[in-house]
Amino acid sequence: MGVSVLPSHPLSKVLAEVFGYTGFREGQQQVIDAVAAGRDALVLMPTGGGKSLCYQLPAIQSDGLTVVISPLISLMQDQVEALQAMGVAAAALHNGMSSEEAAAISQQLQENAIRLLYVSPERALQPYFTRQLQQWPVQLIAIDEAHCISQWGHDFRPEYGQLGSLREMLPQVPFMALTATADAATQADIASRLHLHDPVIYKGSFDRPNIRYVVEDKYKPQKQVRDYIARQRGASGIVYCGSRKKVEDLAEKLHQDGIKAAAYHAGLDHKIREQVLRGFVRDDIDVVVATVAFGMGINKPNVRFVVHFDVPRSVEAYYQETGRAGRDGLPAEALLLYDPSDAAWIRSIINEQADEDRRRVEQHKFAAMQSLGEGQTCRRLMLLNYFNEYRDNACGNCDICLDPPRQYDGTVDAQKVLSCIYRVEQRFGMNHVIDVLRGSKSQRLTELGHQQLSTYGIGAEQSHEYWLAVTRQLIHRGLVVQNIQQYGVLQLTQAARQVLKGEVALQLAEPRINLVVSKPRVAD
Ligand code: ADP
Ligand code: ZN
């Protein structure tokens, strides 16, 4: 996100005086010039790319009214407050306010005393409101989160779908649609539903080159995260967990480690959440352990790392959450702890959904996330590819690029695991099978008589994580299934036979243990 200094641009004075910026970010000037020329625009910029300026600056500089359609009341209010603090006449109208409040704003609108009006899509479509709109000197309609217009987007909202009718009422007014996520189908759909006329399309790169993407096998997640954070030496970061309980447990553990950490989730009191957010922004809190509820309104440039304790449900979510790191452009890291059995669990939850369309979309989105986690190619290429940004060169700044997986003849390793699963009669889960392989002296093994098995201790020379990585690959290759209906017991498939009998050789990826994150787990 480079900034270009263009003192000659007619708007650079407003840019400096009102916003305090020294130049435009990539794309902003093109979009603003398009508005000045009266053209429609479709703006695709990543989160944090600076979309709001594209309509705020033309609005401030004009003497007419710019209407911004936005889906979230809290977001509208944040923007309105920020603008008012800069001395800009901005207001919001939504169905969550009293009729007195709404009347006062209407009065100001009548007097043309407002430059920027934020409205919810419901409000924008009310006949009373649209009649008024036709009388006011509207000079631009900006539609934020425009992907909500399209059924192809990941967050379709029916009232957004009807916004095209506004265009018919205001044929002379330029429309600007803005979004941070839209694949090609969604883009085309947005343009057609809004009846955009030959729009100027600006598509910024979604790459965040300063973020290093790292995926690590998840085996002892709490310990992995604690070790990781201990090495960050007070840097600012966010850890996303899949449940409130995990959030609280981990925040507590980090406290014990002497880390300035706090928990954040939707079940906490509003005041506490505010405190955490404020403490984080002011660097009083170093690490926020949170559910996805922690997102909106984090405008903190120096977040150095984002950890995913659990795999997100979509690449969009992963991208948005990791995107909170490194907004200042300095090096930052996104660490995903990935466990294929988490993925199996999420797939089963998705499959339970009654609504078939929704289920299909979610399955599709999660499958993409899963291949990002399990893939053996450059993470950034996969990520950008998902957003239809194609490149040839691997990035050099992800775990795969920095330490490419090596293939080896894994036949013997595979045979050890497969025969061990067979010896425990396909009735035990991954950790137990590995304990037998490594010759654990645990009481449970003794009670079960598993030290007597011929496979006991045949894998003692390798770590627990090593065998975890091998076993997960066997699952991935279809030689073993993990039966999630039965506590995750491992069972052999037909394909396992050939490998067990030595009829075929098996190439495996060399386990990449503790590449960036943790020290090996010591034997039990
Ligand atoms: P988006 O809506 O695309 O997610 P925002 O409009 O909220 O992004 O902008 C992200 C951040 O970038 C904000 O903190 C904003 O103040 C800052 N920003 C936007 N444009 C510029 C600019 N030209 N120069 C410096 N900072 C900018
Ligand atoms: Zn890479």
Automatic annotation (TrEMBL):
InterPro entries: DEAD/DEAH_box_helicase_dom, DNA_helicase_ATP-dep_RecQ, DNA_helicase_ATP-dep_RecQ_bac, Helicase_ATP-bd, Helicase_C-like, HRDC-like_sf, HRDC_dom, HRDC_dom_sf
Cleaved signal peptide residues: none
Pfam families listed in its UniProt record: DEAD (PF00270), Helicase_C (PF00271), HRDC (PF00570), RecQ_Zn_bind (PF16124), RQC (PF09382)
Keyword terms: ATP-binding, DNA damage, DNA recombination, DNA repair, DNA-binding, Helicase, Hydrolase, Isomerase, Metal-binding, Nucleotide-binding, Zinc
SMART domains, sorted: DEXDc (SM00487), HELICc (SM00490), HRDC (SM00341), RQC (SM00956)
GO BP annotation list: DNA recombination; DNA repair; DNA replication; SOS response
Enzyme nomenclature, EC number: 5.6.2.4
Keyword Isomerase: yes
Boundaries of every Helicase ATP-binding domain copy: 32-200
The name this protein goes by in its record: DNA helicase RecQ
